[in-house]
Amino acid sequence: MGAKNVGKSSPFVAEFLGQANLISGTVRERTPAPGAAQRERLRVETPLGELVAFAEALPAATRRVVLSIRPEQLAVLQESAAPEAANRVRAQLLETNFLGDSSEHRLSAGGLSLRMHSVPPRLDLPEQVSLQLAAEEFVVLAAAE
Predict the structure, then answer these.
(1) pTM (2 decimals)?
(2) Digits of tens for pLDDT over the chain (145 positions)?
């Protein structure tokens, strides 16, 4: 499932539809993305730092956005991964819940609470982790100005 702009959807709708992680931010740069006429690559300043996301048909005047990403789309990076990897976020593990065939983790990063879902379950996460938030997995929503 790739990223897309949901047009007139709101952060409320995104959360209602799937308990997504919602990250508010300000668009710092927009450039055409290869392969699609109306697809753009965004650089967005957020409490987690600068994140890259892709959007389709985002109105040109939009500066404030909400990046929505589902808990199962967050991934733990190996510590040996390149430190300059795009959308790499350091987080503190707050809680892990074993759910049988999966686990749910509550994390803190940049003053935000994030949820991550792991299949198969991950019960060995250290207190400090590096997360990868794939640019292609964000749903970009226009925020109220």
Answers:
(1) 0.83
(2) 344 444 445 555 555 556 899 999 999 999 988 877 779 999 999 999 999 999 988 998 999 999 999 999 999 987 665 566 789 999 999 999 999 999 999 999 999 999 999 999 898 899 999 999 999 999 999 987 6
CA distance 74 to 117: 8
Rg of the chain over all Cα atoms, to the nearest angstrom: 15
Query: Prior bond to 120 cis, omega within 30?
Result: yes
Residues in the chain: 145
- Chain centre distance of CA 77: 14
What are the sequence ranges of the domains in the chain?
A: 11-142
CA distance 38 to 18: 26
Top CATH class of 11-142 equals mainly beta
Burial class (CB in 10 A: 0-12, 13-18, 19+), 52: middle
